[in-house]
Amino acid sequence: MGWMADETGLAKNAANHVALTPLSFLHRAADVFADHVAVIYRDVQRSYAEYHQRVTRLASALAAAGVQPGDVVATLLPNVPAQAEAHFGVPAAGAVLNTINTRLDPDTVGYILDHGGAKVLLCDTALLPLAMQAIDMMDGPAPRIVEVADPQAGLQATGEHIAYEDFLASGNPGFRWIMPQDEWESLSLNYTSGTTGRPKGVVYHHRGAYLLAMGTAVSWAVGIRPVYLAIVPLFHCNGWCHTWMLPVVGGTLVCCREVNARNIYDAIADHGVTHFGGAPIVLNMIINARPEERRPFDHVVQVFTAGAPPAAATLAAIEPLGFNVTQVYGLTETFGHVTECLWRPEWDDLPQEERAAIKARTGVAMPFMEEITVLDAHDRPVPRDGQTLGEIAIRGNAVMKGYYRNPKATEEAFRGGWFRSGDIAFQHPDGYIKITDRAKDIIISGGENVSSVEVEGVLMHHPAVLLCSVVAKPDEKWGEVPCAFVELKEGHDATEAELIAFARARLAGFKTPKRVVFCELPKTATGKVQKFELRARAKEL
């Protein structure tokens, strides 16, 4: 018999086992950090005690509106306090939070509302026209709209729907939160930008969000009472779970409705922002800010960057301005970032150029993940030689439950007991991963995924287009933008402006090609378009 063979009476009980959930963080913070500032938005500042009470009222009002545990509540909101409150208030009602990308077209938003089956939609006043168009395109029952006005941004309530503040006022401040009985219960539903056809609904569990939040506090060494600027859209992997992390450390969330250089510098100078996350486009915004947009500050701001690999030149240019950038990597399917380019002391004294090149690596697994590796076609780890390519494969606690109502895609994504990222990379001898390309030809524009297949599908509807191929074109502002190469039908004419307008009428702005080049497309013997050649051409444009 082994040591500890007799485990009689050592079962889980209420004293020694509580389901992991980020909801616990705000419960504790309302007590421990009651008077500390939890949320800042322009002229509004709220303490943790107030934040907790508003979340409680929201949960209560949702329950009174007929939202049952397991129901979906959607949001169409920029990074305003209501979006942060929904991150706690929706699960506190036992419901599943579906934050919808505010930059999508009405047809896709309508599809998401239908597929997720949202019962209630919290909608920003400025986004009501998008919501109404989307609802017109739905097949199923429309969600009940709660209008979130924003007087701070000059947006007064229309009066056509119940106002968010009135909805909260109707809630009971003594409402008991509905905590998960099992940490595997669904917490949120996030839709990917689909590579082919419709976006897929990624389901997060309470356990993964709890562990990613805790792990981020450790990896980023955020300390106690950091001041975090919400630049990453909270509809994007739930803002990389950072909103759930902040109560752990009594942090202050500074909401940023419009992301521009002036607002970033103002937040750092006025509120003492210590941390933020953002795509490389945000770094470029800071680097290229005009003198009148800049403000002096006397501390180093810690930055997580992800969404697309940052150029070494960008990293070299931003450091002297007072920012320490760490590259992280992940996907919607992994709750946000799961690797970090963990810095080593022996790199401190390297020349600036070499340091920037190291910082441009994708990095190593974060502590809450089990294993992140690069596998070849036979599911074997590639040699750590800094050149052999394979696919990044991921295993650990911050991997989704699966795709909602899509068992086939879920099975495919988890083939062989790994989450298959679709990202192509190699591994350095020290284990650090470096992404070289995206297997699915995804274009990442301003941190948003654009499916080349989707854009091609739209352009192919134009009567003059015979064939088209869409690739990423490097762009100083957005990182990369869609660029279309088009072969016209014989005897047909079309201009670049005409095709861009045609696409714009059918796609979100960030998905619309910024350039159209007319040419014969390079093809393989089997007639497959050679995208690598087009990428090289797009770089020269």
TrEMBL record:
Enzyme group, top EC level? Answer: ligase
Q: Which InterPro entries would you find in this protein's record?
A: AMP-bd_C, AMP-bd_C_sf, AMP-binding_CS, AMP-dep_synth/lig_dom, ANL_N_sf
Q: Name one GO biological process term.
A: fatty acid metabolic process
The record places domain AMP-dependent synthetase/ligase at: 27-404
Give residue ranges for domain AMP-binding enzyme C-terminal: 454-528
- List, alphabetically, the Pfam families matched: AMP-binding (PF00501), AMP-binding_C (PF13193)
Give one GO molecular function term. Answer: ligase activity
Keyword field? Fatty acid metabolism, Ligase, Lipid metabolism
Which EC number(s) does UniProt give? 6.2.1.44
Top-rank taxon, per record: Bacteria
Reactions catalysed = 3-(methylsulfanyl)propanoate + ATP + CoA = 3-(methylsulfanyl)propanoyl-CoA + AMP + diphosphate
Q: Which residues form a coiled coil?
A: none
Q: Which family does it belong to?
A: Belongs to the ATP-dependent AMP-binding enzyme family.
| Protein's recorded name | 3-methylmercaptopropionyl-CoA ligase
Which organism is this entry from? Albidovulum inexpectatum
